[in-house]
Structure formats: C-alpha cells, structure tokens
Amino acid sequence: MWSLGLVAVELATGLPLYPGNEDYDVLKFIIETQGQPPDHVLDSGVYTEDYFIEDKDKQQRWTFKTDQQFQYETGYESLETRCIKLTRLDDLEQIIMFRRGPEVEAFLGEGGFGIVAKCRNTTTNQAVAIKVNKSDPDILQQAHVEIFILEQLRRLDPDAANIVQWNGFFHDGQRVCLKFELLDQCLWDYIGDRNKQGLPISEVRPILGQITNALSHLSSVGIVHADLKPGNIMVVNRHESPIKVKLIDFGLACPASAVIPGDFVGTVGYCAPEVMLGLPYNEASDMWSLGLVAVELATGVPLYPSENDYDYLKFIIETQGQPPDHVLDSDKYKQQPGQRLFVSLIKEMLALDAHQRITPSQVLRHPFFSPGLSNRFPCINIERPY
C-alpha cells in the first residue's frame, strides 16, 4: 500500500516523490517530508543502526544520521535528486494543481529572480501570472521574505488599495512559485505605445492618484516598496476607461522598522538619494520614486536616465532634485494652471531631504487633484530634438 501511494503521486505529478540513488537518501527524503518513524518501530528494525544513532538518555532515542556521519562511515556522499521537495504531504495539493492545472501560455518577464509566466488553469480556465523564483539560496531566501510581506498585505483589499492580488504560493522542486492575478501591461509599455510622447493630465492624474493610494495603504501596514518604477506599475486593462493601475513586485519590499542603512535596494534612476548614500530610509523613499514616475508619465522619458550610481547622483545634484526654476517659472508653464500645479507637486515629491518630502495623504489633497482642474492639456510641453 505504501508503494501504491508513491505510484499515485507519480501518476498525478509525473515525477517520483522520493527518488534516490541509495537507501539513505530515500529515508532522508521521507523523514524531511513526513517525520521520523516512532522509536518502537525503529527498535525492531534489522538495519536501523545503519541509518540511525541511538541515545537512550533522550526522549526520542533514535536520531537519523547526518550526511557527514553517513559519509564518514560508508564513503557515500548524499545527493539531492528530488524534483518535488515538500516539507509536508499536504503541499502535494498545490504541486498537483500546478503540474496538472495551469498550462504555460507565455513568458511575461525575466529578471535576476527568475521568470514570470502566464498560465491557465485547465480546470477553471482562469489565466494567472506565476512568478517562478530560481533555486539559488539567496533568491530562495528573498522569496520567503516576499511571502512574509505579501502575508502582511493580505490585510488590505487589493482592489481598494491598488495592489496586485496575491493568491498564495507553492514549491516546484526547490523553486518557490508565487501566484498573482493576471494584469495587462506595465507603464513602460503603456507609455511606449504612445511613442513616448507623454500622457495627458486626464491619464496622469488617475494613475498618480491610484499609486499614491497604494503607497498610503502600504504605509498603513508599515511597508516600504523600495522598487517603485513604471515597470512595477501595471495597467489592469488598457482598453477600459477610466484607467486603473496596480502596484506589483514586492520582491525588495520590507517593513519600515527593519530597514538596514547601507543595503542598496531599488533601481538606479528611481531610488531616493538617501538610499544611494547609505542613509536610513523609510516610506518617504517611495514618494521620491513616485515623483520620478510622475515626470516620466508626463514627458514620456525618465528625468534622470542613468546606467550607474555616479551619473544618477550627478544628475540629481546638477538639478537640485528638480527642474531649474527658470524653466519651471517660464511663461509657457504659466499659461495652464494644471502644468504649474503638476510641477509644484513634483518639486514636493523630489525634496532632497526625506523629512521634507510630501506624504501620500498630502499628495491626495494637493490642488493638482482638484476636480475643477482641466484635463484637456498635456502636463508638460517638451520640444524634442530631432
């Protein structure tokens, strides 16, 4: 019957549950997944002492030999041969769902962490996005931190908070897979579809308002996103109006109380000066990033395009964290109140001193979001060189 149980798992997943080149490996896999047999069972085993050490002074007398102990005695080096690695049998449900349910339809993105795939559950016909992390130990640890953050965010309504809906995780071998709702396209692509000409106020305001709302909700649970950029803001459906966006990718997020000064996080070109300089940072660093996103939405191009830290800091210093006043105060900006208010808001978002930076609640009360402000004009007029 034990063998039939293993056959059943292999039928359902296409993979053996406890593959091994030696009896020691198989026993180790079983113990790691289901725990150790009770002492009274081990007492009667003919080969128990080959794999276990007895200590009569302990409550659990038998202890499974470590890889090093077994190799020292036998010369055999234990090997990890499992494609499915479980910490408990209950996790089989998620594995079976992934291997038999979702079918990979497309790869949506790739990064240092791994890949994001569009998958479809063949039972429900529902399309989802699955983030498949690499099995590298550092990435595995970061995935567990991301799961911790996502667990905290479950206290929030993802639609009301403008954050991506997380639907749990499962393991595929040594890889951690995170399940999310499927969204349409990121803001980089959305801007690119408009030939990087910048968006009108009628689109910038709702996008900016919704991401500010997301940051406000993150702040309410003490979370810093730490990697806010157009690539991590998704349009829910580009064909729907009014536009709705959600914040994604909490792979670098952390509790504000756990920030470690000197740990570089974020993306060059969007992270706050205090992060670059190794200073303590908090939720205000996300507001700096949102200010740069706002400029890019309005102009179609990044304010501080950089490939390295030095250039990024140089651009910030050269502009004092904002466009020069003689440009911002020129007549062409004074012609439209919306443009003046937008630039005013950007200045407050890009305050070099994090303590002076505007907060999410203050952003939402800024005159730029006044219902009476005209939506007919672009945020900023730029004459492009050809």
From TrEMBL:
Keywords: ATP-binding, Kinase, Nucleotide-binding, Serine/threonine-protein kinase, Transferase. ATP binds at K131. It holds the Pfam family Pkinase. InterPro entries: Kinase-like_dom_sf, Prot_kinase_dom, Protein_kinase_ATP_BS, Ser/Thr_kinase_AS, Ser_Thr_dual-spec_kinase. This is Protein kinase domain-containing protein. GO terms for molecular function: ATP binding; protein serine/threonine kinase activity; protein tyrosine kinase activity. Belongs to the protein kinase superfamily. GO terms for cellular component: cytoplasm. Residues 102-369 form the Protein kinase domain. The keyword Transferase applies.
